[in-house]
Write a structure and sequence with these properties.
The structure is a single chain. The protein is mainly α. The chain has one domain. Helix content is 58%, strand content 4%. It is built from four helices and two strands, in the order H-H-H-H-E-E. A two-stranded antiparallel sheet has the order 1-2. Strand 1 and strand 2 form a beta hairpin. The protein starts with a helix and ends with a strand. The N terminus is likely disordered. The structure holds zinc ion. Zinc ion binds next to loops.
Length: 142
């Protein structure tokens, strides 16, 4: 068992940074991280169990809450500085802030969430981080 685990870790370590980046880019484009051709999601952000293009088994790759965390982090770092800049420069009424920033926050969040989820699935696929039937992480070599 330890020999097999070592072999799996060695196989995943052979992938270069550009391989990881390429898989994340394919995922960010909402495409299969293996072939880059077929859609990764069946709906807004529902991961397909298998790729229709290459047959890659995608079901073990689960991003869980990570896309939401990264989306909130990114959108917060975009909206809050812009809000502070507008407040400092123009000091608009509160209702102007509400009309401006609430829709922009919603649009950015909903727009970025599937892209970030795809990138995280691509990263998991690239490093071989899978989840078993109970949702616990396990490592594989393909
Ligand atoms: Zn594929």
């Amino acid at each position: 068992m330890p020999i097999e685990k070592h072999r799996v870790e060695q196989a995943t370590d052979l992938r270069s940074f550009s391989d990881h980046l390429q898989a994340m880019t394919k995922g960010f484009k909402r495409r299969c991280p293996a072939c880059g051709g077929a859609p990764l999601f069946s709906g807004y952000a529902s991961l397909r169990s298998d790729c229709h293009g290459c047959g890659a088994h995608l079901e073990p790759f689960r991003a869980d809450d990570a896309p939401a965390y990264f989306t909130i982090f990114l959108v917060g770092h975009i909206i809050v500085p812009l809000l502070l800049l507008v407040e400092r420069a123009y000091s608009p009424e509160t209702w102007v802030h509400m009309v401006l920033w609430l829709p922009l926050t919603l649009i950015l969040s909903l727009g970025l969430l599937p892209l970030i989820k795809g990138a995280l699935i691509g990263l998991q696929w690239s490093i071989g981080l899978r989840h078993d039937a109970h949702g616990w992480p396990e490592r594989g070599d393909d």
